[in-house]
């Protein structure tokens, strides 16, 4: 039963011809940036993917319909709708949102599910969720990690968000058997910063090799996807020494205000935006654009392996 899925004509044509497609999440629009910067960024990212030879497919649920690709009207509606009216969707609540005819923005996990359902192999995002600091008592671990272990999509990001416990996140990914591939460097990037102080388990420098690794995983019948950690461009990064104390202050503020569960990440990103005088948002946009470019290159290689357009 897939009659709850709609494709834009552009995405439908790409699927039919085997052309490269790159999935994009929608929580970055609804919960990641204020209006109208969110709309401008979403348009820019889609344009960047097209400029590099692939078709963008921003994914969301609108009035109970899973949209694979958003037209201009849907994009504007999503970008300009209050957060309180938009569900933040992960694996647990995706089906409920559809069943109730509601509108929701897809997180990394939900985007992976929908992309896989649509036959899309590559997904570009900003940063993934992971193990939150203090998880040894709160058990707050993002569903993104489990999703990476079971859904066969290559996820291109700038690393796990720097607000997280990065060593524990890396450890959980290793336990779950998720390939963590640092693109072009040995160290794992940390979202706003190129370096995290952690050595990446794997390194690849060629988008073609990344696409081939995904194809071989499928041939070996290994479940799950692969995580490609793409460092933010040098001229856009906030160095680790600079962002570290700011993240610590934001975390302390969240604890003081008793922010918890799904509200934690949006609060922290907003607080860090304030503490950096907007520099974190500028860096966020640039890293998303950078991931879109790499995602398009991997999608092109994946399409060539399939013999697609």
From TrEMBL:
This protein's UniProt keywords: Glycosidase, Hydrolase, Lyase, Manganese, Metal-binding
GO BP term (any one): nucleobase catabolic process
Cofactor binding mode and count: Binds 1 Mn(2+) ion per subunit.
Cofactor: Mn(2+)
Assigned GO CC terms: cytoplasm
Entry EC no(s): 4.2.1.70
Keyword Manganese set for record: yes
Binding site for substrate: 88, 108, 142-144
Subunit structure: Homotrimer.
Classification via HAMAP family: PsiMP_glycosidase
Function: Catalyzes the reversible cleavage of pseudouridine 5'-phosphate (PsiMP) to ribose 5-phosphate and uracil. Functions biologically in the cleavage direction, as part of a pseudouridine degradation pathway.
The protein, known as: Pseudouridine-5'-phosphate glycosidase
Source organism: Paracoccus aurantiacus
